[in-house]
């Protein structure tokens, strides 16, 4: 809408690219989330995190869903329009894409929105694949080692603080990876971008979902 309303051909092309990119990568993104929900037997993020707390870092979904994790990671970068997937705002081709005609606070809202999108995607990666707010070492083992009660009020406050700290740290790791990718990799062409989404990530994510469902049926 921003690109069309600008009455600028570069902004309009940037808007078309943004729509095509969003449609291409939201489907594998959703399929990867569906595989995690199937693995956890729940749509609740709290249940998904608690399922990853049994054996600490060894029970994180990143080990049980490595294919889904890679597909989710690439799709999340593409959804956030980060390099090498920033085709809607390619400076060398489209000036600034659908943001070309916007300045001041309007441009700032677009810019802040892209980083909020990156933050939310990082939180989703943390919750779905990296154990969320859970400690890499099970809390019960730590409490037994120091011979303290897990239900004590002071321990609960400490665990809550550690949970927030672990969540922010894991989220920062993904944001750092996204920034490092922006510094390192060159931009791909728009046809390569769409081919990657439809011809590679979609079949990979579908195969991962079918494999997860088959293993669930066999184990049950």
From TrEMBL:
The domain of life is: Eukaryota
Question: What is the native source organism of this protein?
Answer: Cymbomonas tetramitiformis
Q: Give the UniProt family note.
A: Belongs to the complex I subunit 1 family.
Tell me the InterPro entries matching this sequence.
NADH_UbQ_OxRdtase_su1/FPO, NADH_UbQ_OxRdtase_su1_CS
How does the protein associate with the membrane? Multi-pass membrane protein
Q: Keywords, A to Z?
A: Chloroplast, Membrane, NAD, Plastid, Transmembrane, Transmembrane helix
Say where the protein is mainly found. membrane
- Which molecular-function annotations from GO does this UniProt entry contain? NADH dehydrogenase activity
Entry's Gene Ontology cellular component terms: plasma membrane
Segments crossing the lipid bilayer: 108-130, 154-180
Look up the record and give one Gene Ontology term from the biological process aspect: aerobic respiration
The protein's location, in the record's own words, is: Cell membrane; Membrane
Q: What is this protein called?
A: Subunit 1 of NADH-plastoquinone oxidoreductase
Whichever gene encodes this chain, its name is ndhA
Q: Name one Pfam family in it.
A: NADHdh
